[in-house]
Amino acid sequence: MIYIKTPQEIEAMQPPCTLASQTLGELAKWIKPGVTTNRLEAIAREFIRDNGGNPACLGYAGFPAAVCWEVNETVVHGFPSNYTLRDGDILGTDIVVEINGFNGDMCYTFPVGEISPEVKALCTTTKEALYKGIEAAKEGNRIGDISNVIQTYCEARGYTVVREMCGHGIGRKMHEDPEVPNYGKKSTGPILRNGMCIAIEPMINLGSRHVIIEKDGWTCRTRDRKPSAHYEHTIAIHGNTPRILTTFSYIEEALQERYI
Ligand code: MF3
Ligand code: CO
User: Fold this and answer.
1) How many domains does the chain contain in total?
2) Closest ligand (CA of 76)
3) CATH at residue 186
4) Nearest ligand 1 atom to alpha carbon 201
5) pLDDT tens across 16-60, in order?
6) Which string of DSSP letters, residue by residue, matches 115-141?
7) Is residue 1 in a domain?
8) How many angstroms separate the alpha carbon of residue 259 from the centre of ligand 1?
């Protein structure tokens, strides 16, 4: 069942979305060659708790961390580890924060040091596809309009779309109806109504679209071990222009300061 939020409930979605955004802004300062994902996980957990939030992924269906760590070929749901980031890696950081019973979900794929132009283009296209999807998230449109624009945009540039994992409704639960696939046909699926909150999250591969789940039961990686990029925002449907509840502005600010 798709739950339409009241204006008060949409307001209550904002604090966890803002704290998720600030947490990724904090991580942006630390993501560089030489740091382990275990260390970054500790920084994220402490930042969330110090700022009055709960790390909603930690313990969710047994997931062992506050953040899903997506190094290179890892598509989603990677564990933190003693892996030391290297120049040229990419690192997706997918986070869910809960405050007062509401959830904010977002993801950003960071370059580590200097990355190849090929991988940089994959990341740029995936981020652009997320914003194309958001543009299609208008009242009266359908879920398939979001799905179709993401698929079309990425495939036209030679990339492939992961099909096993989707975006989703979000609110009091991290995952609510409807599913928001990153591929599909225009004018299909549930109609978008004001007050619907959804997380849009394209997962886009450089090589083939196929993925496997590792023996740990969680870590999802590309079958061909080529890189995958992932960006996500939580939004509320609001007429022709949705409210984007999460933001990359803290991340962008931190990344710019690094080069000054
Ligand atoms: N954004 C991710 C998702 O929607 C968050 C997963 S948290 C986890 O699947 F606990 F399930 F890993
Ligand atoms: Co999500």
Assistant:
1) 1
2) 1
3) 3.90.230.10
4) 1
5) 999 999 999 999 999 999 999 999 999 999 999 999 999 999 999
6) --HHHHHHHHHHHHHHHHHHHT--TT-
7) no
8) 32
Question: Would you mind telling me the total number of residues written for the chain in this entry?
Answer: 260
Classify residue 126: in a domain, yes or no.
Answer: yes
Ligand nearest to the backbone CA of 233: 2
Closest atom, ligand 1, to C-alpha of 96: 5
Q: What is the Cα–Cα distance from 93 to 88, expressed in whole angstroms?
A: 16
Residue 202 to residue 43: CA distance in whole angstroms: 26
Signed CA dihedral, 126, 164, 83, 55: sign only: positive
Range(s) of the domain holding residue 165: 7-259
Name the residue among 96, 61, 84 with its Cα closest to residue 216.
61
Q: Kindly provide the b/e burial profile for residues 128-150, where b requires at least 16 CB atoms within 10 angstroms of the residue's own CB.
A: bbbebbbebbbbebbbbbbbbbb
**What's the predicted TM-score (pTM) here?**
0.98
CA of 167, closest atom in ligand 1: 4
Whole-angstrom Cα Rg for the chain = 17
Q: Using CA atoms, how far apart are residues 123 and 223, in angstroms rounded to an integer?
A: 19
